[in-house]
Amino acid sequence: MIQNKREYKITKAQADKFAEALAAFEKSPPEGHPKTRKAYKDALKSQLEELQDQLSEYEALKLGQTNALAISSFDELPKVLIQARIAAGLSQKELGEKLGLKEQQIQRYEATLYQSASLTRLLEVSHALEVRLDGQVVLGK
User: How far is residue 90's CA from residue 75's CA, in Å, rounded to a whole number?
Assistant: First the structure.
């Protein structure tokens, strides 16, 4: 998942390289066994699609095209908080300022998917991003 402009630029550059490699492969396929060529082409396509999906998700969040994020378990909350920050148009620095934290702390939280954050901190981030949960808690199995 792309978390900031820097990662977006890196991912975009990687996607461009995979697109170029795929185009070169299709223009002049290397010699070898057909199954090997197919596997190589499929791998290039798969990686390109994954990068394009990440770019599309980030772009949709940045453009405000997402107003609800699905969450089916508490484990998904960190990813949703990152997506909510992006959708709110806040940089990591700006979120840090809202919380009275340094940008580097937000970067650490996001890089580790908030593993070191307390429940209190997660709630503070949720409130700063104006995130609210609208669902149910399922008990047992």
Answer: 23
